[in-house]
Amino acid sequence: MVQKECEKGMKEATPVFKHAVEGLLQITRREINEIRSIIRPLDTIRTLMTAVCLLLGEEPTIVRNKDTNYHPVKCYWTTAVSHRVLADMNIIHRMTQIDPTKISLQTIEQLEELIETGNITPEKVLKATFATKGIFSWVMAVRNYFFVYKSLEPQRNKLILADLQLAQYRERKAENESRLRELEEQLKDLRDLHVQKEDEVKMF
To answer: pLDDT, tens digit, for every residue of 66-82?
Structure first.
């Protein structure tokens, strides 16, 4: 029963995640460069690429320029357009290799804060480039997969415990069966010895 619940939950989330990964593979290098070439990105694109950086584990870049009054400010957009993310020729491959089950809770909490700003919604993303649409679908699929996986954690723990208990039971059973065979062999030896002694007595 528990195993079926886990399988059902993951069966619902997995196709969506796989579809999002397939969508990433449709993004061309030209479309990625189109995002990189944006000088003043909309909040939607900036927030979306911040989400990508978070999921990839990339830290923001410290920038000082006229826009920040030359004060040091953490900037994910600078990281996003650098060789660490969008300028990386293998960026799409890196994104497809992300395992939602291995993402930290802290990262997901930061991602939730970004989503709550309202800057990245399907409607707003659709107004941007095709590439941002595919990236947005991937970000949301990773997020949703994480929550489905975490929601099933109690059931998985029950399943792990049940498997452990079953393994322990089988081990004890094997030990008992082994002990029983030893006792049966000892009993057989005693019976044989008894028969032998009886035969010796009859001879006298």
So the answer is: 666 778 888 999 999 99
Same domain, 80 and 180: no
- Same structural domain for residues 132 and 170? no
| Nearest to 90, CA basis, from 29, 23, 18 | 29
Residue 66 burial (10 A CB sphere; 0-12, 13-18, 19+): exposed
Contact 172, 22 (CB under 8 A): no
pLDDT over 70 percentage in the chain: 76
Domain containing 173 equals: 152-204
Residues 87 and 169 occupy one common structural domain? no
**Gap between the Cα atoms of 150 and 153, Å rounded:** 5
Q: Are 148 and 13 in contact (CB under 8 A)?
A: yes
**Stated pTM of the model:** 0.71
Q: What is the CA radius of gyration of the chain?
A: 31
Helix then strand then coil, in percent of the chain rounded to 5, is 75, 5, 25
Torsion of CA 196, 200, 201, 203, to 10 degrees: 140
Tokens read off for 81:
């357009």
Q: What angle do CA 43, 108, 124 make, to 5 degrees?
A: 25
Which amino acid is located at 75 in the chain? C
Kindly state whether residues 111 and 172 are assigned to the same domain.
no
Q: Is residue 3 assigned to a domain?
A: no
